[in-house]
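PROTEIN FOLDING TASK:
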Amino acid sequence: MARLQRKNGRVKAPQRRFCARRLDRSSAESEANVMTAAVLIAFGGSDALHVQDDMSIPDVQTGQVLMRVSAASVNNNEQLACLPTAYGTALGMLERAEIGHGETVFVTGASSGVGMELIQLAAARGAIIIALTKSDKMKKVTAAGATYVVDRDSADMETNILDAAPQGLGAVVDVVGGKAVASVLSLIREGGRWVIAGAVGGANMTFDLRRLYLHNRRLIGSSMHTPVE
């Protein structure tokens, strides 16, 4: 217990105990405004997933609900293979892009769950597959059915793609987005398609619209299964 101090005949409580209480309350209020979150800071595996304890709790808007989560997990490729999530996303992309036999298809994020499904499903349709991935994932992607594999970190990425597809790409099935993929637009041949279902590489990109309409190219958004599925 804190000792009381006597001054001029009056009993006075020390201010130090009051200040300590104020600091504790302020700290509690500060902690109540933050949460712990697993943040994906870049495209990649578990090394790109960072746990942060100082994320601001989001404000609830109209039509939204804020829920307290006591535990969560991240699915790996093996777990996703047991669910229609990755398969459905990949199938929807291929259906919307109308991928058929002999089509030259460029797959981004090839080692991801959706990327691996895209390769396997496109291969089953008889497509020629050019896959973009990291150098340490090339064997895995090749084993999945890719015809050609391109290192995403290579300075000659576009040249390597053209070496594999001298006549250009019939379609791009993209789960990455970002500036690097935007540069591939000019490699799509006349009447080709670019279907996108992800933006882990960046949601904003800039490209010349004339590259679309002057070459009758189509930009297609896709989320999950097509309605007929």
Observations:
- The two ends are 72 Å apart (CA to CA).
- Residues 1-5, 11-29 have pLDDT under 50 and may be disordered.
